[in-house]
């Protein structure tokens, strides 16, 4: 460990170059870490789960303060969570660690320095890495480490648990080669990690996906753009629900209620007073962007009002209590006619942001007429990205650990100093704000809100989404949302060419809506029984031993 | 006053029906610790069979088939789905039942379509009058049938070896298994019993004064959820009390709707949920539910 210190001051300058890592690994590593490592790794192997937990928890006190620091294996800052653990673990091995201390934030550094802690954390990592195979340089090592991170993430009985860590490990993947390259850029694919990331298929995948998503409005017709917008709105709501149900273990069947709150609040706030169907509708006529922000706030407020129940109940009790929200919501939507327009709903005023109005006035860009769907596409994409990043930050940081601990063992979490009721209530508020934003977006896409849409079916769809995609991870929520919300659209569009499915309204055979409900209902059952972790873990199943979930 | 008594009796009769549903819900929870969100669809299955077959088999034959059919559907769900789950987290199983519910409800509502199916009951729309009070025959039949079934169930739960096995499994599954109680059979029978009770309830949810079995019947069946929760999920007494409370509250709120017009139309459907939320605020484990204790 002592040869770590000399490295510390002078490695950072050497961090950036790409070719450097191979040298560092070949020459530097064996002397510092190559020898001690197997020794360190081996005692752990018989019981990797237990000791990993133990060490991870023991490792925390140095950086953390007080009892709650112990529980959160990662230190303060969001985003530096599990990757900091890994970076700290990797540090002594590579000799390039100090740089990672810089990037991994305040948490990584002290631990890498402190002998017991660094050793302990390192053990977690190297044990899994060594199980993956000895050759540990270049891409293989990085790959092994990633799998190792995910595997460690599987041990969810521990304070650090499944969804979070593995999601984090995935997300951190672009940074992994960086740390392998002696740069140790930890989470952010900064300038250092970027150079290393160029040679990896994953980076290309993401780039292609981004370009594709940005380019789609130029090619798709309105039907598919709307389908995509529904999927994006659903993804935002599903991320919120996954924070609540997946990460904190609080079953909610009332998610549709908060979508309704968001959608209708936006209408009331943004629309001017008007008369529809011979009925006077209240409206405050605020600017669109302000109305959208306030609508999200109102949804959060509604979630907060429910907190006396959300903070105290759990499991089925909460599930059925939130079922009440659906019925209350439906009742209010149908009856508060001057706010909601009653049965007929009310028209949604278009959003205006930075001088752009998201309505159907055509703006021709590159020969493509941009109407509301095209313009909204980018707004929704941006909203989804921000929501996903924020949720990832929450999940990977201290709150995420607390939430997982509450899900896995409420009493243990309480003993460790997590204010359980407060966390439950605040996650509920956060998730209802996500739902509120999704509601605003949905209202904008529909251009008309109707009460029937926000019924129990919608709530069940969101639950199906997060279960199918994978409980507790942002990626799972997005995958599930895309699956569940695009399925009916796909079936509708291609109903002629599919067996068993008939076009809507023709009778005979299955209607596309029914067919898709069969499919995702069955998907929920199959996923839970045979594919723990959902679709987002599908790819990993070959390389990762079946987890305990 | 007459109105009040009529509403109260009607409410008690509906409450007894809700209690039947809630009882099945609680039995499944006690035997397997699974919250069965597919319960409304079991009910719909039983009701559908009764309504479709009564022309061919006569009412009682159709009812028997409906009860047996719902029991078989319940047992099949347990056998094909619940038993295949290898994990230990029961809240995940609750989500599985939601998946099952989506499947069953989609299938049944597709079959029912926009039709309103009559259960073909012998009571029709006859009304009995006792002095100033008039009560539909169907309500009296519901009250009697529910009282009979609940008594029979509670006696069986207390005195038969099946009931003892069920209670032992609820108390401590490991010990019960060591004593020779076959847990698989216990949970299978719990699901079957719950299905059968739900099928009987389905009959009384679809007779006069309701128009008959339709898509929305599963929504009516959902009022058994607040009934089970406000009584306490793990208490059969709670299921009874919860069912009666829900029934009476709903009946009164519907009956005095005119006086409650400031709350909007259709407050009767909402009332059970509001009562449930109010009870949960004061007693998070329900009225008769055991407070959860845990050994650390």
Automatic annotation (TrEMBL), chain A:
Protein location: Cell membrane
Entry's Gene Ontology molecular function annotations: branched-chain amino acid transmembrane transporter activity
Biased composition (Pro residues): 11-20
TM region positions: 203-220, 226-244, 256-275, 287-309, 316-334, 376-395, 425-447, 515-535
Segments of skewed composition (Gly residues): 94-111, 177-187
Cellular component, GO annotation: plasma membrane
Region described as Disordered: spans on this chain: 1-194
Basic and acidic residues bias locations: 134-159
Keyword Cell membrane: yes
Keywords: Cell membrane, Membrane, Transmembrane, Transmembrane helix
Membrane topology: Multi-pass membrane protein
Matching Pfam families: BPD_transp_2
Keyword Membrane attributed: yes
Low complexity compositional bias, start-end: 81-93, 160-176
PANTHER family (alphabetical): ABC TRANSPORTER PERMEASE PROTEIN, HIGH-AFFINITY BRANCHED-CHAIN AMINO ACID TRANSPORT SYSTEM PERMEASE
Protein name as it appears in the record: Branched-chain amino acid ABC transporter permease
Organism annotation: Streptomyces finlayi
UniProtKB/TrEMBL annotation, chain B:
Membrane topology: Multi-pass membrane protein
Database matches in InterPro entries: ABC_transp_permease, BCAA_transport_permease
UniProt superkingdom: Bacteria
Keywords, alphabetical: Amino-acid transport, Cell membrane, Membrane, Transmembrane, Transmembrane helix, Transport
Pfam families for the chain: BPD_transp_2
One GO CC term, this protein: plasma membrane
GO BP annotations, alphabetical order: amino acid transport
Sequence intervals crossing the membrane: 6-27, 59-80, 92-113, 133-157, 188-208, 228-249, 270-289
Broad class of where this protein is predominantly found: membrane
GO molecular function: transmembrane transporter activity
Subcellular location: Cell membrane
Similarity annotation: Belongs to the binding-protein-dependent transport system permease family. LivHM subfamily.
Listed name of the protein: Branched-chain amino acid ABC transporter permease
Organism: Streptomyces finlayi
């Amino acid at each position: 460990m002592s040869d770590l210190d000399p490295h510390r001051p002078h490695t950072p300058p050497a961090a950036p170059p790409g070719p450097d890592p191979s040298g560092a690994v070949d020459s530097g590593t064996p002397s510092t870490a190559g020898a001690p490592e197997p020794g360190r790794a081996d005692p752990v192997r018989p019981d990797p789960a237990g000791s990993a937990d133990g060490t991870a928890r023991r490792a925390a006190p140095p950086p953390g303060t007080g009892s709650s620091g112990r529980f959160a294996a990662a230190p303060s800052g969001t985003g530096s969570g599990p990757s900091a653990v890994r970076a700290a673990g990797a540090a002594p091995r590579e000799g390039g660690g100090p740089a990672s201390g810089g990037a991994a934030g305040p948490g990584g550094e002290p631990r890498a320095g402190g002998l017991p802690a660094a050793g302990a954390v390192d053990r977690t990592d190297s044990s899994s890495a060594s199980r993956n195979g000895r050759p540990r340089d270049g891409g293989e090592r990085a790959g092994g480490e990633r799998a190792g991170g995910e595997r460690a993430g599987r041990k969810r009985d521990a304070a650090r648990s499944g969804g979070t860590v593995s999601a984090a490990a995935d997300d951190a993947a672009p940074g992994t080669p960086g740390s392998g390259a002696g740069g140790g850029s930890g989470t952010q694919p900064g300038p250092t990690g970027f150079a290393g990331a160029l040679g990896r298929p994953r980076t290309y995948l993401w780039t292609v996906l981004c370009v594709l998503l940005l380019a789609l409005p130029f090619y798709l017709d309105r039907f598919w753009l709307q389908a995509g917008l529904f999927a994006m709105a659903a993804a935002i709501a599903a991320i919120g629900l996954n924070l609540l149900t997946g990460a904190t273990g609080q079953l909610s069947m009332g998610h549709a209620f908060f979508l309704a709150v968001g959608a209708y609040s936006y209408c009331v706030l943004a629309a001017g007073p008007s008369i529809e169907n011979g009925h006077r509708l209240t409206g405050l006529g605020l600017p669109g962007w302000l109305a959208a922000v306030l609508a999200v706030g109102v949804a959060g407020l509604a979630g907060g009002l429910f907190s006396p129940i959300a903070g105290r109940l759990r499991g089925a009790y909460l599930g059925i209590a939130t079922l009440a929200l659906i019925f209350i919501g439906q009742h209010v939507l149908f009856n508060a006619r001057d706010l909601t327009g009653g049965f007929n709903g009310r028209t949604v005023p278009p959003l205006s942001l930075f001088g752009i109005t998201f309505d159907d006035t055509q703006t021709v860009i590159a020969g493509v007429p941009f109407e509301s769907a095209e313009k909204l596409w980018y707004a929704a994409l941006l909203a989804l990205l921000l929501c996903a990043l924020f949720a990832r930050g929450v999940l990977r940081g201290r709150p995420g650990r607390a939430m997982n601990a509450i899900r896995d063992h409420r009493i243990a979490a309480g003993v460790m100093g997590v204010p359980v009721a407060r966390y439950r209530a605040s996650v509920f508020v956060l998730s209802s704000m996500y739902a509120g934003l999704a509601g605003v977006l949905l209202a904008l896409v529909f251009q008309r809100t109707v009460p029937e849409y926000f019924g129990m079916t919608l709530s069940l769809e969101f639950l199906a989404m997060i279960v199918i995609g994978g409980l507790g991870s942002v990626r799972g929520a997005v995958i599930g949302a895309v699956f569940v919300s695009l399925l009916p659209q796909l079936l509708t569009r291609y109903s002629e060419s599919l067996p068993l499915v008939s076009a809507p309204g023709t009778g005979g055979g299955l209607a596309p809506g029914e067919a898709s409900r069969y499919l995702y209902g069955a998907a929920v059952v199959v996923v839970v029984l045979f594919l723990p972790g959902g679709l987002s873990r599908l790819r990993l199943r070959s390389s990762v031993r079946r987890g305990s979930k | 006053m007459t109105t009040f008594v009529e509403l109260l009796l009607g409410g008690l009769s509906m409450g007894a029906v809700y209690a039947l549903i809630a009882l099945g819900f609680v039995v499944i929870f006690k035997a397997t610790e699974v919250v069965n969100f597919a319960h409304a669809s079991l009910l719909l299955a039983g009701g559908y069979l009764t309504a479709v077959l009564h022309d061919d088999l006569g009412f009682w034959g159709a009812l028997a088939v409906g009860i047996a059919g719902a029991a078989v559907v319940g047992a099949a769900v347990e056998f094909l789905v619940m038993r295949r789950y290898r994990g230990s987290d029961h809240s995940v199983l609750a989500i599985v039942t939601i998946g099952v519910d989506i499947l069953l409800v989609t299938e049944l509502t597709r079959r029912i379509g926009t039709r309103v199916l009559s259960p073909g009951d012998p009571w029709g729309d006859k009304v009995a009058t006792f002095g100033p009070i008039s009560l539909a025959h169907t309500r009296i039949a519901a009250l009697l049938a529910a009282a009979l079934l609940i008594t029979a169930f509670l006696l069986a739960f207390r005195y038969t070896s099946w009931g003892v096995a069920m209670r032992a499994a609820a108390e401590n599954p490991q010990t019960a298994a060591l004593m020779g109680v076959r847990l698989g059979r216990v949970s299978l029978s719990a699901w079957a019993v719950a299905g059968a009770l739900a099928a009987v309830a389905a009959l009384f949810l679809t007779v006069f004064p309701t128009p008959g079995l339709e898509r929305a019947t599963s929504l009516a069946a959902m009022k058994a959820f607040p009934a089970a929760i406000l009584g306490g999920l793990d208490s059969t007494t709670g299921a009874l009390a919860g069912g009666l409370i829900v029934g009476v509250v709903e009946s009164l709120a519907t009956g005095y709707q005119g006086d409650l017009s400031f709350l909007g139309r259709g407050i009767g459907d909402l009332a059970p949920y509001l009562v449930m939320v109010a009870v949960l605020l004061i007693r998070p484990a329900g009225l008769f539910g055991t407070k959860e204790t845990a050994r650390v």
